[in-house]
């Protein structure tokens, strides 16, 4: 309970990704997903070995990153070109650093943050299929992650419109010959409030 006061995870709600993935990462930050380490602390299971590799305890980091069944996926996604300390960070730092890294990766130039978050989500779903449905590893999982991330980035990610600066000279421009121009302006002190306005009529010679 002492660490709960130091929890810093509100950044996840600022990341542009699907709400269900945001919620999943939020649960990971709170150590509240159904890996055996979490279940053991709640008295739901009696042992906490990884059901896939059986080599060590199944923590959140093990299930999503360190399990031998999963490491190959991260290598296929090109993690070594993005984060040299990827396999060394703790759960809090690992999730934050990678979820906020917008470096473009791969031939499709997908922001790493989007690719990483889809990878975490789909690795978790695939893990559950293997554990609870007795399915084998998905040999095309890395490709599926890239496709889903690319689709989201292309269709759903907020577009960044280029900033175009237009310089408009603020000066009087004369009307065509034979015409008069009426320029007006006004202002108010609040709404409602005192207001005033005025105008000026001039011909093409400025008279």
Blueprint of the fold:
Layout: H1 19-29, H2 36-41, H3 60-66, H4 68-76, H5 91-99, E1 104-105, E2 110-111, H6 112-132, H7 141-155, E3 181-189, E4 194-202
Antiparallel strand pairs: 1-2, 3-4
Helix pairs in contact: 3-4, 6-7
Summarize this, please?
The chain is α+β, with helices and mostly antiparallel strands and 207 residues long. The protein has helices at residues 19-29, 36-41, 60-66, 68-76, 91-99, 112-132, 141-155; strands spanning 104-105, 110-111, 181-189, 194-202.
Radius of gyration: 29 Å
Shape summary: elongated
Sheet/helix structural class: alpha+beta
Sheet of most strands: 2 strands, antiparallel
Distance between the termini: 80 Å
Count of DSSP strands: 4
Assembly state of the chains shown: single chain
């Amino acid at each position: 309970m002492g660490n709960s006061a130091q929890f810093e995870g509100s950044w996840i709600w600022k990341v542009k990704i699907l709400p269900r993935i945001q919620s999943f990462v939020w649960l990971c930050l709170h150590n509240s997903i159904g890996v055996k380490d979490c279940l053991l602390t709640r008295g739901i299971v009696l042992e906490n070995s990884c059901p896939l590799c059986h080599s060590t305890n199944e923590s959140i980091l093990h299930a999503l990153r360190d399990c031998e069944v999963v490491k190959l996926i991260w290598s296929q996604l090109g993690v070594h070109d993005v984060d040299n300390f990827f396999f060394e960070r703790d759960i809090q730092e690992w999730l934050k650093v990678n979820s906020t890294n917008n470096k473009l990766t791969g031939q499709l130039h997908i922001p790493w943050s989007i690719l990483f978050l889809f990878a975490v989500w789909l690795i978790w779903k695939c893990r559950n299929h293997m554990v609870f449905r007795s399915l084998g590893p998905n040999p095309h999982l890395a490709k599926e992650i890239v496709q889903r991330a690319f689709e989201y980035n292309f269709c759903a990610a907020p577009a960044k419109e280029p900033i175009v600066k237009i310089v408009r000279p603020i000066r009087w421009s004369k009307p065509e010959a034979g015409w008069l121009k009426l320029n007006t302006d006004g202002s108010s002190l609040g709404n409602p409030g005192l207001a005033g306005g005025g105008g000026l009529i001039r011909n093409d010679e400025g008279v």
